[in-house]
Amino acid sequence: MPLKMKLAQISFPEIPSPLGERVRVRGETMKHLARKLRKNMTDAERLLWRHLRNRELGGYKFRRQRPVGPYILDFVCLEKKLVVEIDGGQHAGQIELDAERSDYLKEKGYRVMRFWNNEVLKETESVLTVILSSLDGNVTALSPSSPLTPALSPRGEGE
To answer: Which residue of 15, 69, 89, 141 has the lowest C-beta tally within 10 Å?
Structure first.
């Protein structure tokens, strides 16, 4: 049997996207990519996860590296539809992509909070306070490192 026919008969696991089509990222399903990301978390993600796992923060359940549509979310509380994204330096150059992602999530009913790696590493308690305030319905919480900037911005990164 020719190689092309053999390859055509191989079935790869896929996950449905919200658009009804299957999502693949360079030959991997989102589920497999999320699993890799969970194994290779940044220091900031690892630190925050220690405080979010096992309902440690206010009794709210968080999931990490969770596929939602075409995206993999750093952390999400499904009960409150709150997404917490930890951004490294690479995100400074992809503002438009982050805005598209946030807009998509907002359309799906999620609120998105973004923190820089250094905020999580240096101001952990403040970050946790802002997240908990948002979970408890206090949307007037401010970002830890910039007291004049709401942590939940109007561009789909919160209210």
So the answer is: 89
Alpha helices in the chain (DSSP H): 3-9, 30-39, 43-52, 95-107, 117-122, 124-135
| pLDDT tens-digit map of 48-67 | 999 999 999 999 999 998 88
Q: Which residues pair with 76 in a beta bridge?
A: 63, 83
CB atoms inside a 10 Å sphere around CB 23 = 19
Question: Using a CB cutoff of 8 Å and minimum separation of 24, what contacts does 139-143 make?
Answer: 143/115, 143/119
pLDDT value of position 144? 42
> Could you tell me which of 158, 122, 136, 157 has the C-alpha nearest to residue 144?
122
Q: Are 127 and 121 in contact (CB under 8 A)?
A: no
Coil vs helix vs strand at 41: coil
CATH number for 41-135: choose from 3.20.10.10, 3.90.650.10, 3.40.50.300, 3.40.960.10: 3.40.960.10
The rounded distance, in Å, linking the Cα atoms of 73 and 58 is 20
Length of the chain: 159
Is the full-model pTM beyond 0.70? no
